[in-house]
Write a structure and sequence with these properties.
alpha/beta; TIM Barrel; Sulfite Reductase Hemoprotein, domain 1; 2 domains; five-stranded mixed β-sheet; elongated
Length: 352
């Protein structure tokens, strides 16, 4: 269990027992303000808590005001190398800066950024990446190791602490799941700064989700992690959906339907795969914090899913609706989904 301190990001709180926040990053070209604003709106609608935007050049500072004028989600400016961009981003009203202090020049530049952020109440996320470690650390440890990532993070932290700045969030990401997990576990023993979790360069929607679930999920189960980003080579809103699913899977979700379904077997006499897809789509926006089961066998379904708040189980031409293992009714297969949705609607209305 990592006992982190609290850091404010806009109106939100990271760490110290606050709800785990979901982040994503805009991937529209930085010179296309309209596309970035549209994408930010999509992320906000999907439930993203914190949005990050790349600010590679001075003209891209215009993104900050445009995005903040469109959505109420805290905005993070991703800055590399040029400390002046960090200063301008703070002046433009950004809510958080992501940079590595060791990459922006001497102590005077770090001090200027720290002073500006302190005055504006803007925290800084130090983002250490296994693919861009300092050369001397790679030589010392023979490659990107967990200790190398921790040493790099501590170096950057020291620069900010020397500038009397402590509103810090840390990330130690690698494309390797074992290296990522080991790095965060090691770091959690050495700091109280909140930790932003993620497996970097995780890959496509399929493999990236698997890697992120394994890495982020295992750390969350250890009690490590205050905010997460699922990095996918996919539209950003898919990252948000994946993050929500991971949080639900480890018991740290914020509501919404937890869907469980059986893997099917030779007893299955219903097109369960299609039915599960229909249920998932129909309940995607449901705000109820419930577990819904979709089972392929009317004999074993209610027993195997007796902990589900609601469920349906198919049979040979008919099926059943059940709640907490108790059968509520029998229906023809084509009426199972409507019967389930009607019962969910009653729950939403408080009728049952």
């Amino acid at each position: 269990m990592h006992n982190s301190k609290q850091v404010k990001v806009g109106a939100l709180t990271i760490g110290g027992g606050a709800p785990i926040l979901i982040q994503s990053m805009l991937n529209a070209p930085s010179d296309d303000v309209a596309a970035n604003v549209a994408q930010a709106r999509e992320l906000a609608a999907a439930g993203c808590d914190i949005i990050r935007v790349a600010v590679p050049d001075k003209q891209d500072i215009a993104l900050i005001g445009a995005i903040k004028g469109a959505v109420g989600v805290p905005l993070v400016a991703d800055i590399h190398f040029d400390y002046r961009l960090a200063l301008e981003a703070v002046a433009a009203g950004v809510d958080k800066i992501r940079l590595n202090p060791g990459n922006i020049g001497g102590a005077d530049r770090v001090q200027r950024v720290a002073s500006a952020c302190r005055a504006a109440g803007v925290p800084i996320r130090i983002g250490v990446n296994g693919g861009s470690l300092e050369r001397e650390l790679l030589e010392k440890y023979g490659g990107p190791t967990a200790q190398a990532l921790v040493d790099s993070a501590q170096r950057h932290v020291a620069l900010l602490e020397q500038a009397d700045f402590g509103d810090i969030v840390l990330s130690l990401k690698a494309s390797s799941v074992p290296l990522t997990v080991e790095s965060y576990r090691l770091m959690a023993c050495q700091t109280r700064y909140p930790l932003h979790l993620g497996v970097t360069e995780a890959g496509t929607s399929r493999m990236g989700l698997v890697k992120s679930a394994a890495g982020i999920g295992s750390l969350l189960l250890d009690g490590i992690g205050d905010t997460i980003r699922v990095s996918l080579t996919a539209p950003p809103e898919e990252e948000v959906r994946a993050a929500k699913d991971i949080l639900t899977a480890v018991g740290k979700g914020r509501g919404g339907v937890n869907l469980v379904s059986c893997p099917t077997c030779g007893r299955t006499r219903i097109d369960l795969i299609a039915l599960v897809g229909q249920v998932e789509q129909a309940l995607a926006g449901c705000p109820l914090d419930i577990t819904v089961a979709v089972m392929g066998c009317a004999v074993n379904g209610p027993g195997e899913a007796r902990e589900a708040d609601l469920g349906i189980a198919g049979g040979d031409g008919n099926g059943i609706l059940f709640a907490k293992g108790k059968i509520l009714g029998k229906y023809p297969q084509e009426q199972l989904l409507p019967a389930l949705l009607e019962q969910v609607a009653k729950l939403e209305r408080g009728a049952i």
